[in-house]
Write a structure and sequence with these properties.
Helices cover 66% and strands 0% of the residues. By secondary structure, it is mostly helical. The protein has 2 domains: 88 residues, no CATH class; 263 residues.
Length: 361
């Protein structure tokens, strides 16, 4: 062997140089991530945001696969972890029609009566639209439309980040997400309830039998006597419609995002329309904020609290939910969070006592 080959400098350089395969995998991973990002951006620009659950999961899983190239068996872990999660969510979507199959009478009066009782005879949705609704959406309706639609995206983004950082945290979040969704589904099935926008379109005579999909529900609120079950609006801004409307998508229209507005309308038409109690928007928003509360820096906590409050305002102002729906949603989130905490404590409890009992028997 030559003196050059034996030199310390040559040996150090040889040891410090990354293996060729590793360099190729790093390069491939970067190219894959860049390609994935380009495709997502292109599709978002040309076809709109991915509010569809299946497409969103496809985006996330392919992104995680790209980020896992060269990370050992991590690509297999993406399939192992996310495929069952996706199947559970698909099962949830398929089971949302259970409320119709069970055929329980829909509640139309209780929620509006509860809101009137809490607010001294005033229905908050009517009060807010009287004072805030303009003929054309102001800039802040862009904010509330975005907050409303974040419900369909943010939980999955949080899940993806947690999966990359800590699989145990990811599993805890998935249990919370799935548990909360199915708990709400059970309540929807047993206690179907109509939202404010539907109550504004129907009179007491229209819903006397507790129907889940009366014809009035699919017509306009304009001309409905006395503002329907909600009651009429007594004052409006010049040019604004003098009846309660479902206006959660108006902010997207101001940005000329007709694709997003169409997706909102399509999504709203395809879901269970009498699933107002509890508000899953309010419940999941509160649950995500509570889950992240101790996992983020203190400076981000006011943002989490504001997110919960703005979501609640959005749901009431846009006639998606009554205040009582939101309070019950927060209550459900608290119950599920406590149940998950108890479950985690039970799982981590030492099994010595149980083992001793088994041995004695």
């Amino acid at each position: 062997m030559s003196a050059v080959d034996d030199s310390p400098i040559a040996l150090v350089r040889l040891e410090e140089a990354p293996p060729t395969l590793e360099r190729r995998l790093v390069f491939t991973r970067r190219i894959a991530i860049a390609t994935w990002a380009a495709i997502v951006v292109y599709r978002t620009v040309t076809t709109g945001f991915a509010f569809n659950r299946e497409l969103l999961l496809l985006y996330i899983c392919t992104g995680l696969l790209a980020a896992s190239i060269g990370q050992g068996r991590r690509m297999l872990y993406v399939v192992r972890d996310w495929l069952p999660f996706a199947l559970v969510l698909v099962a949830y979507d398929l089971s949302r029609g259970a409320a119709i199959l069970v055929g329980r009478p829909t509640m139309w009066h209780w929620q509006v009566d509860a809101d009137r009782w809490m607010f001294a005879g005033t229905v908050p949705t009517v009060w807010l639209q009287e004072r805030l609704k303009l003929p054309y959406p102001p800039w802040w309706e862009i904010v509330i439309s975005t907050v409303y639609m974040s419900f369909f995206i943010l939980p999955y983004v949080v899940a993806a980040v947690l999966w990359l950082r800590d699989r145990a945290e990811w599993k805890a979040f998935v249990r919370l997400f799935v548990g909360l969704s199915f708990a709400a589904l059970i309540i929807y099935t047993l206690l179907p309830a109509a939202p404010p926008w539907a109550a504004a379109r129907c009179t007491a005579a229209d819903v006397s039998s507790g129907p889940s999909g009366p014809a009035c529900m699919f017509g306009p609120a304009r001309g409905v006597p006395d503002g329907g079950l909600l009651g009429g609006m007594h004052s409006t801004h010049d040019g604004a419609n003098s009846w309660v409307e479902r206006i959660v998508g108006r902010g997207w229209g101001k940005l000329n995002l007709q694709t997003a507005s169409a997706l909102i309308d399509q999504g709203q038409a395809s879901v269970n329309l009498v699933a107002a109690i509890p508000s899953l928007h309010a419940a999941l928003t509160a649950a995500v904020a509570a889950f992240l509360w101790t996992r983020v820096a203190r400076k981000w906590r006011p943002l989490l609290a504001a997110y919960v409050v703005v979501m609640a305002f959005t749901l009431v102002y846009t006639a998606e939910h009554y205040v009582v729906d939101i309070l019950l949603g927060w209550l459900l989130a608290a119950v599920v969070l406590l149940a998950m905490r108890w479950f985690e404590a039970w799982r981590s409890r030492p099994r010595n006592d149980i083992t001793a009992i088994v041995r004695l028997s």
